[in-house]
């Protein structure tokens, strides 16, 4: 039995119980954005709680984004979380806290933090091998560098949007047998990923060791790295993804603190060949996050994050090994999460093998996204005492190109 139970109705036994407490930014009506923490189907207004001195964070919770709070660092993140836990478990606080609870159906969620830099990795061996075979048939599925460093590219921070934001079908150049043509992408896809949110910055010219991961990274968000495969396939050589992925990247509205994922750590896959010293992480652990991908409400895949080849700590060490600075609000995504089976892949490129093997969704044969389609990614993680944590979902609906 868990030591603590919440007095909030519906919290115990829900994926958003007392052991989770993810942070987000919400508005009520035309009100200003406010920081809140989710429990069950309500949001605790943390701006209100800090204004009433129920929780102390030096004003960091009275800001329009999480960035000031993210910069405070791990001891403060833990202290605030402990205080919120106290407020939501001790019946003595109920009378003061209850008026600060806002039902979820009365709020509109905003982007939880101002995204500084956005990096996307490529850390699923299965995904990389699948894409290699589809994009580069006849060549080895993995490029020679893949097992020596976490491959990544810099994305476009300004086009990261919160879950629920409509996604406009991008236009661009795509190849045809008569040369490139311009128009709406005909191969619009998803990528189910897990994003890591940096809180504590690092100075230019310094490195962050894998061992210091939890001192810098505050938490995780689900990510959908929308990808226009036709634009991508034409533009990506030799410099990597550009306009095929920069038109929109959706993230969940709720940031799950690493503190809530203590029970989700699992041994990461063994690495062979051995990695260079700066990439060694001890313990070599990943997170047991179980993702689901739903296409118009129909579950089409269940990607397992535990099998990712490169860990988030290794990605962080690699990201800074050249002396690149971290900034508060940096977001780095894992790369598409794919497992070994076809019903575990994190993209429709793989699910339909480049569009050659359609799947049935809603009774019709489908390959890539059509206008009006909605894709929702969810995930669960083990919590304490057999409890399950549900990460905030990331969802988006495709709108026609304009
Ligand atoms: O191998 C390629 O050329 C392209 C790979 C991707 O599109 C994958 C990407 O964005 C990284 C990832 O999400 O794993
Ligand atoms: Ca990606
Ligand atoms: Mg993107």
TrEMBL record:
Q: Which cofactor does it need?
A: Ca(2+); Mg(2+)
Q: Which part of the chain is the Fumarylacetoacetase N-terminal domain?
A: 19-112
Domain of life, per UniProt, equals Bacteria
Q: Where does Ca(2+) bind?
A: 120, 191, 193, 225
An example Gene Ontology biological process: L-phenylalanine catabolic process
GO terms assigned for molecular function: fumarylacetoacetase activity; metal ion binding
Alphabetical keyword list: Calcium, Hydrolase, Magnesium, Metal-binding, Phenylalanine catabolism, Tyrosine catabolism
In which residues is Mg(2+) bound?
225, 245, 249
Q: Which residues form the active site?
A: 127 (proton acceptor)
Entry-linked SUPFAM superfamilies? FAH, Fumarylacetoacetate hydrolase, FAH, N-terminal domain
Positions of substrate binding = 122, 136, 232, 236, 336
Q: What class of enzyme is it?
A: hydrolase
Pathway, per UniProt? Amino-acid degradation; L-phenylalanine degradation; acetoacetate and fumarate from L-phenylalanine: step 6/6
Give the enzyme's EC designation: 3.7.1.2
* UniProt-listed InterPro entries: Fumarylacetoacetase, Fumarylacetoacetase-like_C, Fumarylacetoacetase_C_sf, Fumarylacetoacetase_N, Fumarylacetoacetase_N_sf
Q: Which residues form the Fumarylacetoacetase-like C-terminal domain?
A: 120-394
Checking NCBIfam families in the record gives:
fum_ac_acetase
What is the name listed in the Swiss-Prot or TrEMBL entry for this protein?
fumarylacetoacetase
Its organism's taxonomic lineage begins at: Bacteria, Bacillati, Actinomycetota, Actinomycetes, Micromonosporales
């Amino acid at each position: 039995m868990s030591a603590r139970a919440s007095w909030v109705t519906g919290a115990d036994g829900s994926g958003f119980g007392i052991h989770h407490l993810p942070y987000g930014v919400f508005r009520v009506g035309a009100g200003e954005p406010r920081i809140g923490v989710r429990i069950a189907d309500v949001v605790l207004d943390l701006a209100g709680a800090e204004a009433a001195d129920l929780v102390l964070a030096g004003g960091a919770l009275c800001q329009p984004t999480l960035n000031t709070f993210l910069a405070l660092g791990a001891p403060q993140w833990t202290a605030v979380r402990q205080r919120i836990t106290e407020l939501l478990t001790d019946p003595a606080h109920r009378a003061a806290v209850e008026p600060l609870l806002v039902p979820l159906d009365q709020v509109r969620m905003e982007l939880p933090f101002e995204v500084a830099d956005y990096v996307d990795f490529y850390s699923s061996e299965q995904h990389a091998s699948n894409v290699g075979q589809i994009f580069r048939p006849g060549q080895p599925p993995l490029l020679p560098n893949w097992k020596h460093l976490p491959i990544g590219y810099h994305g476009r921070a300004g086009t990261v949007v919160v879950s629920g934001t409509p996604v406009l079908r991008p236009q661009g150049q795509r190849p045809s047998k008569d040369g490139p043509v311009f128009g709406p992408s005909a191969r619009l896809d998803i990528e189910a990923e897990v994003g890591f949110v940096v809180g504590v910055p690092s100075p230019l010219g310094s490195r962050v060791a894998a061992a210091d991961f939890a001192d810098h990274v505050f938490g995780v968000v689900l990510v959908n790295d929308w990808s226009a495969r036709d634009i991508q396939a034409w533009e990506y050589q030799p410099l990597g993804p550009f306009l095929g992925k920069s038109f929109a990247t959706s993230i969940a509205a709720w940031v799950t603190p690493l503190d809530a994922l203590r029970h989700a750590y699992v041994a990461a896959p063994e690495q062979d060949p051995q990695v260079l010293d700066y990439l060694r992480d001890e313990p070599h652990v990943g997170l047991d996050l179980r993702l689901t991908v739903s296409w118009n409400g129909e579950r089409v895949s269940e990607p397992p994050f535990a099998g990712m080849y490169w860990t988030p700590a290794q990605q962080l060490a690699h990201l800074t090994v050249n002396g690149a600075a971290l900034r508060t609000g940096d977001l780095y995504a894992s790369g598409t999460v794919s497992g070994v089976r076809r019903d575990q892949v994190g993209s429709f490129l793989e699910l339909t093998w480049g569009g050659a093997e359609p799947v049935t969704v809603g009774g019709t044969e489908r390959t890539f996204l059509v206008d009006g389609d909605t894709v929702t990614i969810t995930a669960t993680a083990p919590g304490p005492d057999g409890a399950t944590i549900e990460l905030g979902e990331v969802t988006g609906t495709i709108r026609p190109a304009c």
